[in-house]
Amino acid sequence: MVQAITQVTGSAVPLLLDDIDTDRIIPARFLRCVTFDGLGEHAFEDDRIQDPAHPFNQAQFQGGKILVAGRNFGCGSSREHAPQALMRWGIQAIIAESYAEIFFGNCVSLGIPCVRASRANLEALTKLISADPRTSVAIDLLAQTLTAQSESGQQVKATVEIPPGAKQSLTTGGWDFLGQLLDGEPKVRAQVARIPYLQKFAV
Amino acid sequence: MTDSRNLFNKVWDLHACQTLPSGQDQLFIGLHLIHEVTSPQAFAILRERNLKVAYPERTVATVDHIVPTQSTARPFVDLLAEEMMSAIEKNCRDFGIRLFDLVDNRQGVVHIVGPEQGLTLPGMTIACGDSHTSTHGAFGSIAFGIGTSQVADVLATQTLALARPKVRKVEVTGQLKPGVYAKDVILHIIRKLGVQGGVGYAYEYAGDVFDRMSMEERMTVCNMSIEGGARCGYINPDQTTVDYIKGRPFAPQGEEFERAAKWWLSLASGQEAQFDDVVVFKAEEIEPTVTWGITPAQSVGVKETLPTIASFPADDQKVISEAFQYMDLKEGQPIQGLKINVAFIGSCTNGRISDLREAARIVKGRHVAAGVKALVVPGSQLVRKQAMEEGLDKIFEEAGFEWRGAGCSMCLAMNPDKLQGNEVCASSSNRNFKGRQGSPTGRTLLMSPAMVAAAAVTGAVTDVRELE
User: Fold this and answer.
1) Which single residue of B22, B80, B264, B435 could bond B122 by disulfide (Cβ 3.0 to 4.6 Å)?
2) Chain B residues 334-373 with CB within 8 Å of chain A
3) Do A197 and B436 touch (CB under 8 A)?
4) Does the beta carbon of B15 lie under 8 angstroms from any beta carbon of chain A?
């Protein structure tokens, strides 16, 4: 059993762009490795080189725990190197308008909650954290809320969405699925007996 | 009794072992394919937890992403690539997994090898640590990409924890116009439904256009399902499917094959099958299609001009502007005539023998335009061998193309094949993301292999129909 994750609180990094693919999160040349060690420093490397104003380049967003992104975040390649790079950079949760499916599943397997918020709320949140990078953002997975409070006292409060399976897995500490799958072995064996191509097409 | 389930739900139900506390199903995986990039950390998890591979005969490995296409002499010049190659060799040896390595002529791009060897069969669940696993859906299987933690799950248990997606029927009916290929059909679908239109869905491709397609064309379509957001796309098995599989090395043989074929055909979605959504396209509306932007949905017909930013909904305009800026293109400019620097024919999308034949047909008797670097990378060693037996290599080489060894090559540039600077590449691959082809400022135009051939010999985006 891994740790239950019910809330994530910290400063946030605004990256409200759409269709950010996993090649951009971690360019393919950094996948030439046999461990995930050291990927954090290469997160968004090419975007950062081309855009000095990229939030991952800016001193005030270093140490950010929560990434704020747009629509279809993490599309493209299935590389788990992408969430691994974000996690090793320091990201512990993501708030976005929507996610690509494989990326979302990879994040759950790593214990990184990915919640959805409306465009309007993401824009309000981005405005707040851009104006005051020390804004504290709290995601409550059980209540499905986010609360952001700047040092000057300005607030953004919003509801967030998360699919029930991911919510259950994260908040009960069941997001490391391997143990559960191993426990299901007798049921797997029973199912194998019913699958035609595993039985010479004779069932 | 009629079964109102579509193929997807029939196959899913057959593989669901139990419902987990999260509400997800524990799904048995009939075929697990692995390659050198997304597997080493998964084997590390097994070693850490002292686990074995549960069904070693149901995992097959090959090497493709990092393989150099000019010299495969060991050790590789790239020592990081060499380390990955050694890792998969050791992992397969230690855990008893079949590996098609570089000295085995069955090696190639994993999604080309599975079908070629008869490993990919209808009615299976197929997973691989690679998003283009959707390719195998062409056989009427449920096939999808997974991350490395899930690769470990499959190795250790042959199962995955997954939520059942919805199923959308994507129908294309009518007659495709001359010069319009399977690649154009899927680019058109993605353009219309968007890059996230398929999130939460499996796509069933149906209609007479797909019925008439060869298996290789069907694989091209299913391959790019993920570019439309659908993790999985499939086509119902029919006689074309059965004929393709017959006699392949790992396919059932003799009486077992007859029993298998009967079962495969019974899985197809019937007239009564229910879907969560249905969309219909007319084949006649599909043109040879070329992407101009940084997502596979940003495309136009070859005779069209690029859209204006204002023609998109307000929420989309930021990413459209970003695409114009990165590609250094202007609103309203024609796509035809756009100069290219590189032409790439290959990849799991379009690296099969029929793709090479079509490209060679266009290239024959012509020459690669001055200043254009053009390469052909067969999807597998067996595709390469077949092409050479047909003399296609000579046609390409006489025209000034480089004829390479099998691998992923310039589709993703984890190997020596890369764009330089802001080169423009006419590519038969699947992704036009920023930096995808190995240069952080490189620019990719996705199109069919025939259109890449046309661009290679003219030096610019060209309507292939004008070269016929």
Assistant:
1) B264
2) none
3) no
4) yes
Q: Is B146 an 8 Å CB contact of chain A?
A: yes
CA-nearest residue to A30 within chain B is B414
Which tokens in the block code for residue B42?
A: 């998964």
pTM above 0.95, yes or no: yes
CA neighbor of B19 nearest in space, from A71, A168, A52 = A168
Q: Could you tell me which CATH number the domain at B289-466 has?
A: 3.30.499.10
Contact at CB, A102 and B315, closer than 8 angstroms: no
Reported for B385-391, long-range contacts at CB under 8 A and 24+ positions apart, including other chains, are: B385/B105, B386/B353, B387/B353, B387/B356, B387/B357, B387/B360, B390/B357
**What spatial distance separates the first Cα and last Cα of chain B, rounded to whole Å?**
51
Which of B18, B51, B227 faces A187 most closely, judged by CB atoms?
A: B18
Q: How far is B234 from chain A (nearest CA, A)?
A: 17
In a domain? residue A152? yes
- Token reading at B20: 């987990």
Does some domain include residue A89? yes
Phi/psi at B93 (5° precision)? -65, -50
Interface with chain B: mutation pick from A24, A102, A171, highest number of B CBs within 10 Å: A102
pLDDT tens digits for range B104-146: 999 999 999 999 999 999 999 999 999 999 999 999 999 999 9
Classify A42 as helix, strand or coil. helix
Cα–Cα distance for residue pair B460/B137, rounded to 1 Å: 34
Partner-chain residue, chosen from B37, B162, B256, that has the shortest CB–CB distance to A31: B37
ipTM: 0.97
CB contact under 8 A, A75 and B28: no
Domain B7-162, classified CATH 3.40.630.30, yes or no: no
- Helix residue ranges, H only, chain A: 22-25, 45-50, 81-89, 101-110, 119-131, 164-171, 177-183, 185-192
Alpha-carbon distance of B334 to B189, in angstroms, equals 21
pLDDT at A1 over 90: no
- The reply to whether residue A197 touches residue B121, judged by beta carbons under 8 angstroms, is yes
| Neighbour-count burial for B224-246, b at 16+ CB within 10 Å, e otherwise | bbbbbbbbbbbbbbeebbbebbe
Q: Do B199 and A101 touch (CB under 8 A)?
A: yes
CA distances from A95 to A92, A144, B189 (A): 11, 12, 29
Tokens of A202: 């004779």
Q: pLDDT tens for residues B290-338?
A: 999 999 999 999 999 999 999 999 999 999 999 999 999 999 999 999 9
Domain parsing of chain B, residue ranges:
7-162, 166-249+261-285, 289-466
Enter the tokens of residue A34. Answer: 């046999």
